[in-house]
Write a structure and sequence with these properties.
heterodimer; A: alpha/beta; Rossmann fold; B: alpha+beta; 4-stranded mixed sheet
Chain lengths: 157, 488
């Protein structure tokens, strides 16, 4: 039986602010909240669509190179995506792949896009990202415990 | 954005060099620059992949035993290949030239799991939209979910083959990402009988689906033969690993280089002395290095690596079904598929079948469940690990001091080996498709299709939301920007 809430955090811990996703996931794993499962990967891929089965809510967590600081919380709907040269899917494309492959409606989904600014190999987290991390952590906790978006940021992606 | 440097090259009079601006470096997307000569013809194509900088600096100064784990962070797409190439190099540092049977087979299983899942993703999700929908179809349709909409069974197989390969990796590496299974001198875990049985349950299906994928590519060639023969094709020298008997071996072997016509340049060269055969050139307009075969020199010595090279430049494949398919591929249309750039897709599927057969064979081998995991020998100061990663030959070379710290690292990744070959493929496409001085969606589509044959890591390791995959720029003979086209 899968946990009803899945947090799918992506990013590379050794590429500066790209570590935001894995760092938030690590905090969440330490919190060990009942009913919440955390999966961390370098990037979203097609097989992650299979992780959506039997979920009530999926929260995608990733660093963002644009958008509002310190973070945006967006609802995500299945969407065809054109970024097919990157070896990585957008959250919307993961939902779409799930729907197409399983024939089922995907679960409700949110994307927590945490603003970063520097993504060089071997870099530490930037000052901006450290600030974003704290704000985003409070929001992530609230979302996984209440299952609701706050309305901050755009409403869809 | 680019800036031109007013420095004409001695070897390329009439052209100007181009530098990449800092914004491009941060964003981590691929960019193609087409350079026109004074008659307005495409003289050169340059693919800039800016993420391949800083690899060596990232590793230097670290204790050697950390390296097999940390190098996985160099690339989010093929972390297992770096994990294993580093381990192979550091085997030599801890004085081990031959692993225990269990350790070698666990590593091989991990590697072929990586090959299978990587090739499955590329064919079922990245390449098949190009092939099934046509090169000129809308980019919004030629994508991952587009293929799922039009061919749901193909999409399902792609997902499940990926999952199978990932499961092989998880069982052998300990975790699906940031694995720790391979260590200098061996491995730290074996594969239990129960784990082998669980994987064996799906291995037959992986073999069958791989065969069917090969036959699908064959049909596509048959249906579009003139296009498939010619598209982005050019003669290229090659480099790959082969086993002592000339068989394909993606985990270990000697280096083989051939001229474009197949004539050997060298064969069975000890990989630990790669640097005597492969030199690297630096060019001011790119962060990527330009490796070349020393015997042919920097101008003529560029070469191509990867599935098309490996399948066409091995003597045979040591798995029965894959070998039958390899022979069919080589004979098709008097060898035209084996010479064409789109032949990469066919060759990749033959390799996927080979990987599935190797995995199935290894899972039946009781050595996988052995307890003899690790060896130690006399400590050495240097190690070279070479592996055939999904995209081609991957070289890790380290020097380690007496305090166990890495003092020097040199990595040549598959996409770097293919650097000039990709430029040639793009140039071929641009010469046929560029009409006048305006970049079109059609040209961008064709450039993408040509690049995708090589399956490069365009945005290696960092995937923050909002990145741009590809931009195309056209520069005249004076280095002035004529046109620019980008795709989000």
């Amino acid at each position: 039986m899968h946990a009803p809430v899945l947090v799918l955090a992506v990013g590379n811990p050794s590429r500066g602010d790209d570590a935001l996703g894995p760092m938030l996931a690590e905090r969440l794993e330490r919190a060990a909240l009942p009913g919440v499962e955390v999966i961390v990967d370098f990037q979203l891929q097609v097989e992650h669509s299979l992780e959506l089965e039997q979920r009530r809510l999926v929260v995608f967590v990733d660093a963002a190179v644009n958008g509002a600081a310190p973070f945006e919380l967006r609802s995500v709907r299945p969407l065809r995506d054109a970024s097919h040269t990157t070896h990585a899917l957008s959250p919307a494309a993961v939902l779409e792949t799930y729907a197409r492959v399983t024939g089922n409606e995907p679960p409700a989904a949110l994307a927590l896009a945490v603003r970063g600014s520097s993504f060089g190999l071997g870099e530490e987290l930037s000052a901006e990202a450290r600030h974003s991390l704290e704000s985003a952590w409070q929001e992530l906790l609230r979302v996984v415990t209440t299952g609701e978006g706050s309305g901050r940021g755009r409403s869809a992606s | 954005m680019t800036e031109t440097i007013s420095l004409e090259t001695a070897t390329r009079p009439g052209l100007r060099r181009v530098a990449i601006d800092p914004l491009t470096r941060v964003e981590g997307h691929g960019k193609v620059t087409l350079l026109l000569d004074e008659d307005g013809r495409v003289q050169q194509a340059r693919l800039h992949i800016v993420e391949f900088r800083g690899f060596e600096k990232f590793i230097q100064g670290r204790p050697y035993w950390e390296v097999p784990v940390m190098v996985q962070r160099l690339c989010g797409i093929c972390p297992v290949s770096h994990h294993l190439a580093a381990s192979k190099a550091l085997d030599q540092v801890v004085g081990v030239d031959q692993l225990t049977p269990t350790a070698e087979k666990v590593r091989r299983l991990m590697h072929y799991g990586q090959i299978l899942q990587s090739h499955a993703l590329h064919f079922f999700y990245l390449a098949s939209p190009d092939l099934l929908f046509g090169f000129d179809s809308d980019a919004a349709r030629r994508n991952i979910v587009g293929i799922a909409a039009a061919h749901p069974e193909l999409a399902r197989r792609g997902v499940l083959l990926r999952k199978f390969g990932q499961e092989v990796i998880r069982v052998t590496a300990g975790k699906r990402i940031h694995g720790t299974g391979s260590v200098p001198g061996g491995v730290n875990r074996s594969v239990s009988r129960a784990e082998r049985d669980a994987l064996l349950a799906d291995a037959g299906r992986a073999i069958e689906w791989s065969r069917e994928a090969i036959h699908l590519v064959r049909r596509l060639f048959e249906q579009n033969l003139p296009l498939y023969r010619e598209f982005a094709s050019f003669p290229a020298h090659t480099l790959n690993l082969v086993r002592d008997d000339g068989a394909m071996d993606l985990y270990h072997g000697g280096l083989r280089a051939c001229r474009a016509d197949g004539e050997p340049i060298f064969d069975h060269v000890d990989h630990a002395t790669y640097w005597e055969q492969v030199f690297e050139e630096v060019k001011p307009w790119s962060y990527m290095k330009f490796p070349y075969l020393r015997a042919l020199g920097p101008e003529e010595g560029w070469y191509r690596v990867g599935p098309l090279t490996r399948v066409t430049r091995c003597d045979f494949m040591p798995s029965p079904l894959a070998e039958l398919e390899r022979r069919d591929f080589m004979a098709f249309d008097d060898g035209s598929a084996a010479r064409s750039t789109l032949g990469f897709h066919w060759a990749r599927m033959v390799e996927m079948l080979h990987a599935a057969e190797v995995i199935a064979g290894l899972l039946e081998d009781d050595d996988l469940s052995g307890n003899d995991l690790l060896l130690r020998g006399e400590r050495r100061g240097r190690g070279v690990g070479v592996i055939e990663a999904p995209r081609g030959t991957l070289i890790h070379h380290y020097r380690v001091d007496e305090q166990d710290m890495v003092t020097r690292a040199n990595l040549i990744v598959s996409t770097t080996h293919n650097n000039e070959a990709m430029n040639r493929a793009i140039r071929e496409v641009a010469r046929r498709e560029l009409d006048g001085r305006e970049l079109t969606e059609g040209l961008l589509n064709h450039v993408e299709v040509a690049i995708r044959c090589f399956d490069p890591c365009l945005s290696c390791a960092t995937h923050a939301l909002g990145q741009m995959p590809l931009a195309l720029e056209l520069l005249d003979a004076e280095g002035r920007l004529v046109d620019r086209l980008a795709r989000d």
